User: Fold this.
Amino acid sequence: MKLSLFSIPILLSGALMIASSSNADTVYLKNGKEVKGIVVEDYRDRITFSTADGETMISKADIREISFDSEEDNLVQLAGQAQVRGDYSTSFYYYEKAFKMNPASKMAKDGMVFLQGYLYRQGQLKKEADVAKMADFENYGGAIVGGEPSRRDELTESFQKLRDSIGITLNASDSGIVISGVELRSTAWEAGVKRGDRLIAIWSKLTGYMPLKDVVEMLLKKSPMETRCTIERTVAVAIDRSKALLAGVSDLIGCDFSMEFDGLTISKIYEGGSSAAAGIEAGDLVVDIDGNPTRYMPLKKAIDMIKDSNEDTVKLTIRREVVLWSQRGG
Amino acid sequence: MANGPRQYRRRQYLVAKKFQLKYVGLILLLMYITGLLCSYLVYYTSMILLGEKLASVYPQGRLIAIVRMVNLRIILSMVLATPLVAVIGIFLSHRVAGPWFRMESYLTDIAAGNLKNALTLRSKDELVPLANKINKVVDSFKQTITSQRAHLDKAVKELEDLKKSVASHPADTAILTKDLNDVEIEMAQIGKELDKYKL
Assistant:
């Protein structure tokens, strides 16, 4: 009797937690309608919204407001809006608050780190400009010198800058922004970026549906130290059929999977395995297995797909965060 | 009981440490088992009812994160409930351990032959019926012993009279016979009372 009394609060708190945790994000449309679901991808001009009827794209032009289930997502949204307005200090404040609320929030962390660097860089530039101005004043008695910067072929100039600073060449394709070239011994080459990789996000901001010009601009608008990018690559991993019938996925392709907040993740790589040979690293996110997206796929199903495959290889599409350190003089 | 409704408050709650801690441990163990069982039932029932729907809307990673968070919070709430349950356990076990402790010292007294006092417990205590039975048994012993003592005293007195009669000259046979009969009657009474005990 006493025991059931103790178990009631535990039972209730468990049920309440499930109920409170499974609230959905709400999108308020400009036409007065509201839709409940989960925002799974946030692009500059649209969102991918998951509902009971499947995924759907909603243009941001049609959205009046998005109310996220978690408080930190709402703060990240506010931070993003402030950033667009150019109010960087407010934006930093919101990112920092969201990060304190949930240190696991990649969006909040990336936004915070980026703005920290960006604000520092702006301060430095202002100081440099002031010093130059003072020098000009002393040399020429305050006369305005220099002319309008040349505006000819800005994009070509930006591409050149990108090649010089990070060491990559970008191309827009149907599958998104593709890295069409990597300069030898450049910062991108050192970070393990390869030709043919797709550039998915810069500082956790998705580059999909974004004009190439804006992506280049985003990359050049970097913090003084680093630029964090997410790249995507499809690799063929050989399945080792010599292993016993009951072999686990670690025996078959030389890696272990785990289900993390961002999705199906490589938790461990075994030396000498085919995953290591294919260039997969621990921490890589697996977004697709043999053409099947893993977003709604349970861990067991993903493992079974590899185990039950009749092919000699399995095609894994992985996403990885790379840090591109700024080059001096870049 | 014989002392009337005397009210007293126990100040010490850990009267029988070993017994009470064992009791608290048992309550905690059963709480954990019940808690885990309930969590398991809540988790599986909701997954059976909502699992498919949730899995088609929530990306797997987020769904698993929610489940992990729920598990973590259940464990946390059990950890937080532990001191509270331990205090309640000590308080409840004290209602058993208090009487237990009193009975033990009371029975030690009885074994030493002290039948003067009755066993008194508080009305809210556990084991009150048992204490009443013990009091009844001790009361019955007390009555038997008092009665036997009276018979014995009487028999001793008759024997003294008999001694006097034998010493006087000449001895009166009729008186001697009467005294002997009286002693026999008292002895028979003691024997009769002892007969009710099965040994």
Summary: The interface with chain B takes residues 2-4, 6-7, 9-11, 13-15, 17-18, 21-22, 24, 37-38, 40, 50-52, 54, 259-264, 294-299 of chain A (CB under 8 Å). Confidence is low (pLDDT under 50) at residues 18-22, 142-149 of chain A. The longest helix of chain A spans residues 106-140.
